[in-house]
Design brief:
Helix content is 39%, strand content 11%. The chain contains 14 helices and eleven strands. A hairpin with a 5-residue loop joins strand 10 (261-262) and strand 11 (268-269). 27% of the residues are buried. The model is unreliable at 1-84 (pLDDT under 50).
Length: 467
Amino acid sequence: MPVGQLPADSADTPTVKSKLKSAELAAINTAVATGAGSIDSEITSSADTVVVSSDDIVGSKLASDGHHHGDAAAGTGGTDAKLDDAADVVGVDVQPAKVSQPISRTISYHQNADLCLRIRDKAGNTHNLKVCAALLAGALPTLGDLSACVDVASSGERVLDLDGFQNNHQGLDIILSIIHYKFHEIPARPEIDQLYSIAQIVEKYDCAHLVLPYMEKWAAGVNWHITMEKEIDDDKTLLLAWVFGESHFVRMLSRVAHKATLDDEGVLLDTRGQPWKDHGLPPAILELIAKTRFDCLAKVVQAVNGPLQELMGSSKNTSKFCRTKDTNGDLKQACEYQQLGSLVSGLSAADLLPFPTAAEYRGSVVALAAKVWAIKINRFKLPGTPPHLDAHNTCGINHKEAVESAMKEDVRLISAIIEELNVRGLKSGAFVPNFFKDCENEAKTPLAIHRDLRLNGVYYKQETVDS
């Protein structure tokens, strides 16, 4: 008898065939005769023990496309097995797969909650957030009078529907946890996506004061993400740095500008192909992103196109890129011809001929710089000459050095942006003293900004002395 098979001599005995293939139960064919016993059976051999249950039988029938192998006991026949047949054999009710429906989730942030905030995420799920109205009104004064916009449900519960939280309900959860003293729920080092979601709530409700106790560690976390992770979302990091007035704003502005592209109409796009104007940044920042992109792009273009034009029009008496001290004009011209040939060949291979101008180029600076960087420039060299005796070892167009220098240039911020960053940094706790020291003579000083903030009852306690 084969291993793992029950005797099939009698029609009164249930027959179950089991075949082990690659240590898995591939197919089990069953036939149940009149008067059969229990469907669940154990198949035992000296090597293995295989338990066959009703679920295994259904899986076998569906996997085998209903084909029965060998003769079965009475009542099986040779017909194809169908889903209904499988259900009849094992005695179970096979239900059709159900389409997942949106769910409703309730989270209570306070034991004395008296208001339900109702939001919906991008999956259509409803989140019922039970909060204390007094705490909410005190922490988020921009909400205004809650009583004017609260509906009363049939159960008597007060409900406030909030829109615009399809993608940032994580941030709302953290802000509500802070408001209701659920400090154990606050992440020590949030991910970039979490910080971006928090920043959206802070910007929407002007509540940067709520994150002040955590901002020092959170800012250090941003630096950790930028330094340690190979790829981060530069667009989101720039936006959260702007909202919090965080010191990485300048660095991220350069990276975002270098990755920005233009559509056919000249609209500035982010890395997802979405217009930057839809992110809610001030026009001055959008203009700065566009200007930074164009200025860097112009320098990258000049690093290649300048030498290209000069090499195409040079003569042996005006050699610039052959720096040998040899006075042989023919030799210098031969060196530059090799440079020109390799440059044209490299540009052709990179599909950059004719070479674009900065005004007409629609791609990102990063993409163009990578193509330019990959071009290898050949020069004249006598075979077998050691490097220290090679008179042409300094020859070349030095395009890599020019591109690297252009990509490393810092962005120059205007005074209005610096002042706004200082205001936001002092509100959130992300302010770094002397970070914009070189420009403080142009913008309002942090000391003056701080003096104004102390008069705001949202950020500081107010004291009145009666005589």
